[in-house]
């Protein structure tokens, strides 16, 4: 019966001698194994795993066979380079004064020719291995999460199409600014070109000041928003020849949209790439993502040049091409984001999880919640499976003035403060307009923890379920809030454990 074991050591490597008695290239050195200890085993015809293929740097080394020979025991090792996909076979003979490398074979080569003990096996990677090492994280599927591949594919498609239309945008700007005109016009064009970059950057700073720290709240939405803003910038560039007399205004607006698109995409993109790193290999994942971006950009430029020859100087033909490519970019962006399986708890995903728990008694999976959230959660209400979602809203971080108004008197406010004296939040239910619309006002401590945040949102979920379909005038909102708190407090340990068991990161709520 074949048995496989895993051994990883940092002991000194064995002395491996060639035919001339000198040390030769040894796969043992790269794996840092004590070969003498391995060769001392008495397992015959047994595969013995020496290194783990899950390690990104160390090749997978397996003892395939151990046989008796007239000159001594011989051992056959197979070394698999996970990153390049190449495989080598090495034959050793144990002698009294050391270990002799008898021969080596590149099993991936077509000829399969063996080399002598003095020779070295070719370490040139195969074409597929070269592509793997250049564009994908080392370790293949084991190095990244499952949603990486779909996201990367559609992001690549989006990059190619978007880069192709940017050629048309640049072409439109050059015509609008007056390239090829008289020297005096060209001088003015140069000044306008510089000014539009400066004004565009000012717009980018204004956008960053408005958004603030909201990038972490909904990474998917801001990536999609960045893609849309980039396409708007290209559209303005394409249309700029029609407004040549307003070049500075149109070009500055176009540059501002493109700058804001980078500002919108880069922060959440970093968080997304970090979520792919199954081995904490964030640097490798980011570097390979940049390599993919470079190739998609180059392919897009080549495609855009061909398209520019076809459309010529016609603004309307360029506009038709833009409309088609813009639709493809938006579709590819949504498909890429739909592949994401983010396990961090932002406001939208947390509300989905807690509503499902209150309604069904179970914590939904990361995949199901991301699918329900979609890429445009910021623009719409989170679906909760019923009409109550349109009637109930939560104001998390409500100011004290709103809580005072909801409490309807100092006595009630004092009762609320006393009731929540051991918590980092105070929750008050209040009507919102007329009819069945109500809202939960949650005033929080600036240093509120993730667990307290989850408890407050869980209380909101219980309150929403209890008040669904009821009028504010028909219920005692303070009593309903207390009942919801009691239910949340009782079920919170189960919720917290269920979140952890389902793979959710509970250390922080965005």
From TrEMBL:
The chain crosses the membrane at residues 173-195, 234-257, 294-313, 319-337. Pfam families: UVB_sens_prot (PF04884). The keyword Ligase does not apply. Residues 1-24 are annotated as: Disordered. It comes from the Eukaryota. It is found in: Membrane. The keyword Membrane applies. Residues 130-359 form the Protein root UVB sensitive/RUS domain. One of its GO terms (cellular component) is membrane. InterPro entries: RUS_fam, UVB_sens_RUS_dom. Residues 1-15 have a biased composition (Low complexity). Keywords: Membrane, Transmembrane, Transmembrane helix. PANTHER family: RUS FAMILY MEMBER 1, RUS1 FAMILY PROTEIN C16ORF58. Belongs to the RUS1 family. This is Protein root UVB sensitive/RUS domain-containing protein.
């Amino acid at each position: 019966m074949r048995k496989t074991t895993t051994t990883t050591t940092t002991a000194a490597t064995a002395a491996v001698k060639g035919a001339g008695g000198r040390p030769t290239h040894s796969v043992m050195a790269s794996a840092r194994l004590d070969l003498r200890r391995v060769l001392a085993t008495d397992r015959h015809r047994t595969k013995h795993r020496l290194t783990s293929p899950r390690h990104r740097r160390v090749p997978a080394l397996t003892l395939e066979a151990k046989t008796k020979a007239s000159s001594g025991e011989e051992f056959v090792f197979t070394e698999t380079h996970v990153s390049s996909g190449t495989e080598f076979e090495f034959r050793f003979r144990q002698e009294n004064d050391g270990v002799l490398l008898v021969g080596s074979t590149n099993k991936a080569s077509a000829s399969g020719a063996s080399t002598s003990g003095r020779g070295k096996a070719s370490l040139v990677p195969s074409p597929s291995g070269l592509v793997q090492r250049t564009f994908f994280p080392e370790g293949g599927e084991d190095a990244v999460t499952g949603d990486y591949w779909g996201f990367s594919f559609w992001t690549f498609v989006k990059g190619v199409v978007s880069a192709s239309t940017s050629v048309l945008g640049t072409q439109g700007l050059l015509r609008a600014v007056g390239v090829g005109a008289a020297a005096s016009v060209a001088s003015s064009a140069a000044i306008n070109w510089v000014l539009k970059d400066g004004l565009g950057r000012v717009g980018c700073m204004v956008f960053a000041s408005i958004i603030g720290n909201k990038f972490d709240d909904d990474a998917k939405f801001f990536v999609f928003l960045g893609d849309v803003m980039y396409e708007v910038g290209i559209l303005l560039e394409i249309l700029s020849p029609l407004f040549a007399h307003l070049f500075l205004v149109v070009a500055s607006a176009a540059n501002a949209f493109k700058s804001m698109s980078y500002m919108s995409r880069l922060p959440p993109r970093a968080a997304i790439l970090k979520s792919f790193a199954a081995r904490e290999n964030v640097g490798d994942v980011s570097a390979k993502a940049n390599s993919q971006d470079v190739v998609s950009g180059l392919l897009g430029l080549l495609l855009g040049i061909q398209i520019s020859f076809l459309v010529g100087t016609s603004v309307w033909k360029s506009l038709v091409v833009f409309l088609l490519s813009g639709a493809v970019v938006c579709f590819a962006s949504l498909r890429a984001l739909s592949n994401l399986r983010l396990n961090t708890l932002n406001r939208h995903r947390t509300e989905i999880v807690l509503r499902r728990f209150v309604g069904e008694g179970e914590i939904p999976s990361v995949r199901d919640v991301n699918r329900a959230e979609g890429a445009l959660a910021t623009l719409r209400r989170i679906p909760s499976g019923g009409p109550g979602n349109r009637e109930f809203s939560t104001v998390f971080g409500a100011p004290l003035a709103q809580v005072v108004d909801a409490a309807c008197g100092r006595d009630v406010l004092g009762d609320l403060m006393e009731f929540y004296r051991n918590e980092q939040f105070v929750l008050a239910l209040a009507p919102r307009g007329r009819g069945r619309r109500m809202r939960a006002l949650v005033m929080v401590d600036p240093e509120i923890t993730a667990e307290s945040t989850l408890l407050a949102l869980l209380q909101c979920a219980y309150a929403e379920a209890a008040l669904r379909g009821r009028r504010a005038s028909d219920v005692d909102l303070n009593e309903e809030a207390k009942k919801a708190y009691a239910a949340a407090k009782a079920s919170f340990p189960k919720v917290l454990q269920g979140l952890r068991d389902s793979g959710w990161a509970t250390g922080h709520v965005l």
